[in-house]
Design brief:
The protein is mainly beta and about 270 residues long. The protein has 4 helices and 18 strands. It has one domain. Strand 13 and strand 14 form a beta hairpin. The longest helix is centred in the last third of the chain and has 12 residues.
Length: about 270
């Protein structure tokens, strides 16, 4: 595996301990990183390569609240569309196509944190993305846990992320909510010898970059008690991390893009 962990991770740890977040310069936070999608690396697909900056799909999540204001979640997502032009233009490819040339991308997510006054605050989170070449993997929530089944022997992981920079959600009763999980140091999987089945080959231009991964979306209304199953949409964008000298430990510089992404995506789908 290729790990994009830079030497200043200790600086991030200190910032988290102080309750601070990183401000990324405006040019880095406003622009979604363009990346190449090489679908020729997926077994059985028609060779196709294109540039995108956003991956979109839908998710199902089980969330459990305790009596102390804490929550735990387990979720899965199915991704079906790539977008470009700052999330405004739909990209046509083999992803989620029916027939012999199509393939799927799915993910599993877990998180823990607290909930108070309509605000979710994430303490930990983890995400894993997989390619399903034959689109024959099943997903379900069983006993409050996202469960992957069906035929998974041909599936392979392309990315994992577990270093949470920020996890925030907003929710008011009888309204839809929004969330953003911002990960530092995502890891692209590396290919075995003579194989193209890995994250580095599928997203080749992301290889070796130091990245921040923003997984954001919205969800439907639900009671904030006990265990609930919720549904919503989810998007993934990447942001390059600038050199350590350009980072400032103050404020929050990465939240607030989720609503803009969704507006552009929905307009592009009309």
């Amino acid at each position: 595996m290729t790990n994009t962990r830079p030497s200043f991770l200790r600086l991030l740890t200190v910032a988290a301990g102080l309750g601070l977040a990183l401000v990324i310069p405006r040019a880095a936070s406003a622009d979604y990183l363009d990346f190449t999608v090489d679908e020729a690396t997926v077994p059985g697909t028609v060779p196709l390569s294109f540039t995108a900056d956003l991956l979109n799909g839908a998710y199902t999540e089980s969330i459990t609240f305790d009596a102390l204001g804490n929550f735990t979640t387990s979720a899965y997502a199915d991704f079906g569309q790539y977008f470009s032009n700052e999330g405004a233009s739909l990209q046509v490819g083999n992803l989620n196509n029916l027939g012999t040339n199509g393939y799927g991308i799915y993910a599993t997510f877990t998180s823990t944190g607290s909930f108070s006054g309509g605000v979710f605050t994430g303490d930990t989170a983890e995400a894993h993305l997989y390619i399903d070449p034959d689109q024959n993997t099943t997903k379900s929530i069983v006993g409050g846990v996202a469960t992957i089944g069906g035929t998974t022997t041909d599936d392979y992981e392309i990315l994992s992320a577990s270093t949470l920079l920020s996890g925030t959600g907003f929710f008011l009763p009888n309204q839809k909510g929004e969330f953003a999980l911002i990960f530092f140091d995502p890891t692209l999987t590396t290919c075995a010898a003579l194989s193209t089945q890995c994250g580095e080959s599928y997203w080749p231009t992301l290889k070796g970059l130091t990245l921040i991964t923003d997984i954001n979306g919205d969800f439907n209304n639900f009671p904030t008690e006990g265990t609930q199953e919720i549904h919503g949409d989810v998007s993934i964008v990447f942001t390059p991390v600038p050199e350590p000298a350009t980072l400032t430990l103050m404020g929050v510089g990465l939240l607030g893009t989720a609503a803009l992404i969704r507006r552009r995506r929905k307009n592009a789908s009309l």
